[in-house]
């Protein structure tokens, strides 16, 4: 797989240009890192940078025979319809990347005229956004994906992947983590989605409003419920078995998966797989996980609104009422395993059927990375829920 990485104006200066915003990595270092990230995934990259609009357009045209493009158009993002048209014209899957959180900066930076012709936009993740863009392109090439809209907002979309063979297929609804913040999106679960689809699960990897983009406990929870309900509208055409729908959530997505059972009905969720979940919002708040992530999501502290936490925290809504698989790594430095240990214990006490695994030497994202032994354990258990 051949990927072309294109950087626009002023990105030749990263490393020294506003390092508090763009970091201290130089363009040369970034391009070398892209080469190494791609080669780990069996892909190759070509890199290009220019400060000139016409040259960027020419390079896009020359990328017509590549398998994917990663582009950071710099300030051209915000007004260059010519670059937008070039991306559309070449028809190659293109990922838009921004190092900074453009949605949290000046209003003019929040506008992108290229987004609508890109397969996804990654922003606010620093230079690891380029790594994630490469990963996304590799995952898109690995298995056909249909992105389906389930509501009016740009975040009301999900990626549907259908396994080989005859249906009806069991369905795994995937709910990504990232502390409910809008800089992290469903591409985090691309590789897991591809792997589960290869194993015979139809996967519905959904997006939803997040903090910084209109999300918060109510809007986010409502989006997840709508995304799950929307399965009914395309189940028939894709041979989905709505009697066998499981919710798989990671980190903050674990909270959403557990709460999805509490709040939704059609189609019913038959089991929840909670990977390093935030199963207890108050404990997570006390532990200060993800900085102020919990208060930002709940928009109140537990002291300000105990009722909100009672409504939104899975541990306060036990029993969940469906079989639960909870897996946590003991080396998770983002969500402490202690939260899952007490969540699983309490859920069992309250009458839930719970399988709990605390995996030794395993970190937070190992649980969603098909290259790890931890993932082998996760899928072995998921397959029992089929
Ligand atoms: C940028 C954001 C743009 O607004 C800015 O003009 C850039 C870099 C980013 O990577 O964050 O040059 O695209």
TL;DR?
The protein is an alpha/beta fold and about 375 residues long.
Backbone structural class: alpha/beta
Associated small molecules: 1,3,4-trihydroxy-5-OXO-cyclohexanecarboxylic acid
Net shape: globular
CATH superfamily of the largest domain: Alpha/Beta hydrolase fold, catalytic domain
Question: CATH class of the largest domain, please?
Answer: Alpha Beta
Helix content: 25-40%
Euclidean distance between termini CA atoms: 33 Å
Number of separate strands: 13
Strand order of the largest sheet: 6-7-9-8-10-11-12-13
CATH topology of the largest domain: Rossmann fold
Beta-strand content estimate: 15-25%
Protein architecture, described:
The chain is of the alpha/beta class and 386 residues long. It has two domains: 2-136, Dehydroquinase, class II (Rossmann fold), CATH 3.40.50.9100; 143-383, Alpha/Beta hydrolase fold, catalytic domain (Rossmann fold), CATH 3.40.50.1820. It contains 14 helices and 13 strands. The chain has helices spanning 19-22, 27-40, 53-62, 81-90, 128-142, 190-198, 217-229, 231-234, 252-263, 281-287, 293-298, 306-312, 337-349, 373-383, and strands spanning 2-7, 44-49, 68-72, 94-98, 120-123, 146-149, 157-161, 169-175, 202-206, 240-250, 271-275, 324-329, 354-359. The strands form two sheets. Strands 6-7-9-8-10-11-12-13 form an eight-stranded mixed β-sheet, with helices on both faces. A hairpin with a 7-residue loop joins strand 6 (146-149) and strand 7 (157-161). Helix 2 packs parallel to helix 5 (128-142), helix 3 (53-62) runs parallel beside helix 4 (81-90) and helix 7 packs across helix 9. The longest helix has 15 residues, at 128-142. The model has no long low-confidence stretch (mean pLDDT 97). The site of 1,3,4-trihydroxy-5-OXO-cyclohexanecarboxylic acid has 10 residues, from loops.
